[in-house]
Design goal:
The protein contains 18 helices and 12 strands. A hairpin with a 6-residue loop joins strand 6 and strand 7. Helix 1 packs parallel to helix 3, helix 2 crosses helix 3 and helix 14 runs antiparallel to helix 17. The longest helix has 34 residues.
Length: 443
């Protein structure tokens, strides 16, 4: 085992907040296939986004800005904002983007990298995965002036194999779930390293403490209710001294939406730095944690895990035959779509990949089922499946209109190689032409 570096003697809290909104689909009937190519429920999307922006994003951003200023830069957090959320914020609530720009200027906020569409492409289509991660990183840098250096996959989905894929893209720190069935007796309160790639550091969610805030904060039946900032910091202080890292990963809507303003959630958040300072507990971004702490040991995660539902696996999105059919059908189009230059098709391709569409098709029961129903705009999982497949059928028609189904994948690959070679040749010729012109001008 490695010892932690001496640069960090005290405990540190690493906050990461997830922000995502899908483009929900309108009711799309079988008879619309082939005639109607606009798929989105604009009214629902706008009203949900504006409600969440007003109740959660804006007051939470203001609270965090005040906390950073009041604590002279000692309070730090990280955000991962999906591309589909950014697209909707720019359309319906640009003031939220402005408030994130303000936070970015403090240098106390880190923006993480993820798939643009909050998609499951990492499970099925490596080329698409690379495209989306690059697209997302570019968008974050253009909006906030910061290139993401830490990666978190959709819903914290991770495995050793996936870690290698992410490492190939240049990331050396990955966030994931501290799943009990993976950790066993081990604690999530350390930095680990990938079992297959020692250069990749893993930061694991402390599920209990994160969920105490996200799900139990205002639960009157909970035996720890009410949760106060001093009590919460005491819990962290009482964690064994050698466990220096507490990763609190949660949905940003926890503040003001999942836990209402009236519950006292903002006051709780605001009071944390005061009590943390009394105990010598600091706050760090994921990049700072990775720089300050060495991994204690390799962690092998041979099977895919996530932060969803009781099982912490993929059953939230791919747990039944409906979900699998829709998923396979969608990703059978990848190679064709990437050859199409049509902007509308490219945009629809991204928006149809959001993991939420598959989440709505879940047929789970008990408490997990209740969570799925809470977020779903559909009455039943079957309705979600039917609606999605109708939309997908129309989308497939549009894709095949450009690259017919009679052209098989081998021919497509050959065509794709030809196109890429031509683009490289054109690029080379343009570069040579530029150099020649430059020489002439000097002469």
């Amino acid at each position: 085992m490695f010892k932690n570096e001496k640069t960090l003697h005290m405990k540190t809290i690493c906050f990461y907040f997830q922000i995502h909104q899908p483009f929900r689909l309108k009711r799309y009937r079988f008879f619309d296939i082939g005639t109607e190519h606009y798929y989105y429920d604009d009214f629902n999307n706008e009203s949900i986004l504006q409600r969440v922006a007003t109740s959660s994003f804006l007051p939470a951003n203001q609270t965090i800005l005040e906390m950073i200023e009041a604590n002279k830069g000692k309070f730090k957090v990280a955000f991962s904002i999906s591309g589909t959320a950014l697209d909707q914020l720019e359309i319906h609530a640009p003031e939220v983007i402005d408030s994130f720009c303000q936070l970015a200027k403090t240098n106390c906020v880190e923006f993480l990298s993820e798939t643009y569409a909050h998609s499951l492409c990492s499970l099925k289509d490596q080329d698409e995965f690379r495209v989306q991660v690059a697209l997302h990183s570019k968008r974050i840098e253009s909006l906030f002036g910061k290139k993401p250096r830490v990666f978190r996959n959709t819903e914290l989905i991770y495995s050793d194999e996936l870690g290698d894929m992410v490492a190939d893209l240049g990331y050396k720190t990955i966030l994931t779930e501290g799943a009990k069935h993976v950790l066993g007796w081990k604690s999530p309160n350390f930095v680990y390293q990938s079992a297959t790639n020692p250069n990749v550091k893993l930061l694991l969610k402390n599920s209990k403490l994160s969920d105490d805030i996200t799900f139990r904060f205002s639960d009157h039946q909970w035996n720890e209710y009410p949760l106060t900032a001093d009590k919460f910091i005491d819990w962290i202080d009482n964690i064994p001294e050698n466990e220096q890292l507490i990763n609190l990963f949660m949905n940003y809507e926890t503040f003001g939406n999942l836990q209402s303003k009236e519950s006292g959630i903002f006051e709780f958040l605001k009071a944390l730095p005061h009590f943390a300072e009394q105990k010598g507990i600091t706050f760090s971004t994921p990049s700072e944690v990775a720089a300050k702490l060495k991994p204690v040991e390799p962690l092998s995660i041979p099977y895919l895990i996530s932060w969803a539902d009781e099982e912490r696996d993929l059953s939230a999105w791919l747990g039944n035959t409906l979900q699998e059919e829709a998923f396979d059908k969608l990703y059978s189009l990848g190679e064709r779509v990437r050859m199409i230059k049509d902007r509308r098709i490219q945009q629809d391709w991204l928006y149809l990949q959001s993991s939420d569409h598959f989440f709505y098709m879940s047929t789970k029961r008990a408490s997990d089922g209740a969570v799925h129903q809470h977020f779903s705009p559909y009455d039943t999982p079957f309705e979600a499946f039917t609606n999605y497949m109708n939309v997908l059928s129309d989308f497939i028609k549009r894709v095949y209109a450009q690259f017919p189904s009679s052209v098989d994948n081998e021919e497509l690959n050959s065509l794709l190689t030809t196109i890429q070679n031509q683009e490289e040749k054109i690029s080379k010729l343009e570069s040579e032409l530029k150099t020649t012109r430059s020489r002439k001008a000097k002469a």
